[in-house]
């Protein structure tokens, strides 16, 4: 049976043997490369792994709809605003950019021709575009980048609170739809408490105590790690937003590659 005769079904690369992966990577299937922080502060109510869980939920739904290969999630990235929140992980922009170039070049070397980065971050956008430009220069391959925070605009009318951009009603609703047991419902109100003008920064609270507090570029968002009112978040809103994000990506991919 030739590649063109085989049923075109998607798979998770991590579930395959290397021989199975070699066969499918040469079958013109798009490789979805999820990027979402495995450990990044999301306020007092959401777990550190929120970004990873959301981007993996999107990838799973796309896998159910389209013949794609889902690569393992890149859980480390450029997140300078979160360096002072305990448990949050961060690498410098050039490190993240180099990592993404290496990963993409590996898939190209193994036969992939279509690469789609599912980016569930904001600070990661610029390094990803620089990495994509490098790949285009070196290999003549144009990477598709889907920035999840910018998608799902069909749901903009759902939000009752002004968008805060991080751990807000939108993001909290997504996690209520994906992993409701991990949302600390008793802490939602903490996302709207005003910051005191004389409040110390997390940089000053780190241990061990230093005589001269270390300042880091980017600084802290605030003491709670959230920038938006999450009290109106619901699982129903999250499910609608998740479906809208997936529909946006699937529609664009099928427009770009009609034979998908």
Automatic annotation (TrEMBL):
Q: Which domain of life is it from?
A: Bacteria
Identify the stretch(es) annotated as Disordered: 209-232
Report the source organism.
Answer: Ferrovibrio xuzhouensis
- Which keywords belong to this entry? Hydrolase, Metal-binding, Zinc
Metal-binding keyword on record = yes
User: Which Gene3D superfamilies does this one have?
Assistant: Creatininase
Q: Would I find Oxidoreductase among this entry's keywords?
A: no
Q: Which cofactor does it need?
A: Zn(2+)
Question: What is the name attached to this protein's record?
Answer: Creatininase family protein
Q: Which family does it belong to?
A: Belongs to the creatininase superfamily.
Report the Pfam families cross-referenced here: Creatininase
């Amino acid at each position: 049976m030739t590649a063109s005769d085989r049923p075109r079904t998607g798979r998770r690369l991590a579930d395959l043997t290397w021989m199975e992966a070699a066969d499918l990577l040469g079958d013109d299937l798009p490789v979805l490369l999820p990027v979402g922080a495995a450990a990044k502060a999301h306020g007092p109510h959401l777990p550190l792994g929120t970004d990873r869980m959301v981007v993996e939920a999107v990838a799973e739904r796309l896998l159910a709809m389209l013949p794609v290969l889902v690569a393992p999630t890149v859980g480390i990235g450029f997140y300078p605003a979160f360096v002072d929140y305990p448990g949050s992980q961060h690498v410098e922009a050039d490190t993240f950019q180099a990592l993404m170039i290496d990963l993409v070049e590996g898939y190209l070397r193994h036969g992939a021709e279509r690469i789609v980065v599912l980016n569930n971050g904001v600070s990661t956008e610029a390094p990803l575009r620089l990495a994509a430009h490098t790949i285009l220069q070196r290999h003549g391959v144009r990477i598709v980048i889907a920035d999840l925070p910018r998608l799902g605009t069909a749901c903009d009318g759902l939000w009752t609170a002004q968008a805060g951009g991080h751990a807000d009603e939108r993001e909290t609703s997504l996690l209520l739809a994906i992993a409701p047991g991990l949302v600390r419902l008793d802490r939602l109100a903490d996302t709207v408490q005003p910051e005191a003008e004389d409040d110390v920064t997390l940089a000053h609270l780190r241990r061990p105590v230093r005589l001269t507090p270390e300042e880091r570029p980017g600084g802290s968002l605030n003491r709670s790690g959230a920038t938006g009112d999450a009290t109106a978040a619901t699982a129903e809103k999250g499910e609608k937003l998740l479906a809208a994000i997936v529909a946006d990506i699937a529609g664009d991919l099928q427009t770009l590659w009609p034979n998908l």
